[in-house]
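Q:
Got a chain?
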Amino acid sequence: MKTAIIYWSGTGNTEAMAKAIERGLKEGGTDTAVFEVDKTNAGIAEQYDKFAFGCPSMGSEVLEEDSFEPFFAAVEGKLSGKKVALFGSYGWGDGEWMRDWQARTSKTGAVLFEQGLTQQEAPDEALCAEFGKRFAAF
């Protein structure tokens, strides 16, 4: 099964999460590719079986609005039946953006993996890699 990790990162924290999740997926035996959101498009949905989407909380706990939100809006209609993991970092708030994102993704018919992985500020890369290993087995 091929897995794509697609993320947006402003400070590098979500990027570090993506790379650690990639390590865990590969250790779990999954064929994995990582993409910055600006270097892909919604057509990627036809090329992969599983997706890990990463975006930090921005502003008043929303997805990044210039790059990630438009990408996700374009791809979400193609996620039905796909296995999807969500992850991201935050600096404030209580995780509302992740809860909203999970609910939105569930409505697409995607098969959500666990609860979205959130990390405050600099991520625990070992925890992220374990998340990736579990997603590999999902």
